[in-house]
Amino acid sequence: MRVRTNWKEPSSDPCVEFEFGETEDYSVVIVNSTYLKEVSNFEFEIFNQSNAIRVISLNKLEKKSSLELFNGTGQILYTNQFDKGSLLDELISVSNFASGLYYVKISNEEKNSVKQFLVR
Fold first, then answer.
1. Least confident of 19-28, 43-52, 73-82
2. Could you give the angle at the alpha carbon of 110 between the alpha carbons of 108 and 114, nearest 5°?
3. Which terminus of the chain has a lower count of CB atoms within 10 Å, N or C?
4. d(CA 47, CA 63)
């Protein structure tokens, strides 16, 4: 697949030269789904509360895991560790956060899940 951008000149020709622009080529590999190993991610919910969010896991953690909260630029704003077999129930204050989208990531050495939430 070829993706092109050009400044001020549209073109449907994928090989024409442009003075200003960019061309990127991508390859896509299509595989039979029987070759894919299913990976189960963490199931958790984020609930908005007054000036806070509550992160709750739906199942016990299979391994020692970490919770990270980060902003849109990837800056980690909060982190905590949880032992194998525990149910995650974490209340995190967001009262000092600017309005915008934030992300919660729960991970261990094998898998991870990310969900987003909005601070207004």
1. 19-28
2. 60
3. C
4. 24
